[in-house]
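Bumping my old thread because nobody answered last time. Still need a sequence for this structure:
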């Protein structure tokens, strides 16, 4: 068995949420409306949000498209920003080799009032409230191959500690997490990977009594913006 196969089977036999940074969650915070710097626009085609959800019997992966977004850059530093997520067009895409019909059935359930209620809340938002230098321990590149596209469950070499108001299903909470942010020339990139507790946003459906859904949802975020 190859190392990749071993890692894959190890994950599906252990269906707790991925070992990742845990976002610190608090009540919504004030947003600085006097943003400094230039406004750069999100490159939607080069940005993405991936999610991993787990339950007793296994896990699922998918994506949430980004509709629009912007960041503010001042002297090479990100000072603010806001992103709009197209929750109504979220997708269930994995794990690799999973049954398409079952994935589509799950997708319909995720869009229902049991989960994200996209008929009432088709969009989610994330708005930065603070960005500061990261002073914690460095995270080494573990070359973790378990997640299909964003290949580690923790950000390697984080540069900043980011906080912002995340709104899902009409509920707004502030979350704080490490991120790697790079501003070079006319391009800015950011990567973050962390777990949130879905119940903080009123997503409380427990699953079947013999196949309970874990409360933690893993989010892998890759953002690109240009001047």
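Sorry it took so long. Here it is:
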């Amino acid at each position: 068995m190859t190392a990749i196969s071993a890692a894959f089977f190890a994950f599906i036999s252990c269906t707790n949420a991925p070992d990742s940074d845990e976002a610190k969650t608090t009540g919504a915070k004030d947003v600085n409306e006097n943003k400094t710097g230039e406004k750069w626009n999100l490159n939607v085609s080069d940005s993405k949000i991936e999610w991993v959800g787990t339950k007793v019997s296994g896990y699922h992966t998918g994506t949430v498209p980004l509709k629009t977004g912007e960041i503010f850059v001042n002297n090479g530093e990100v000072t603010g920003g806001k992103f709009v997520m197209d929750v109504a067009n979220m997708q269930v895409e994995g794990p690799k080799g999973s049954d398409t019909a079952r994935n589509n059935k799950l997708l319909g359930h995720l869009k229902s009032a049991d989960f994200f209620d996209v008929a009432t809340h088709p969009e989610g938002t994330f708005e930065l409230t603070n960005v500061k230098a990261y002073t914690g321990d460095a995270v080494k590149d573990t070359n973790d191959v378990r997640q299909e596209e964003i290949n580690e469950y923790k950000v390697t070499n984080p540069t900043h500690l980011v906080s912002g108001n995340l709104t899902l299903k009409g509920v707004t909470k502030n979350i704080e997490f490490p991120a790697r942010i790079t501003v070079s020339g006319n391009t800015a990139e950011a990567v973050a990977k962390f777990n949130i507790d879905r119940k903080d946003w009123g997503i409380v459906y427990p699953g079947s009594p013999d196949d309970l859904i874990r409360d933690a949802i893993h989010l892998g975020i890759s953002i690109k913006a240009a001047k």
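The CA atoms of residues 19 and 214 lie 13 Å apart. Let me know if any region looks off to you.
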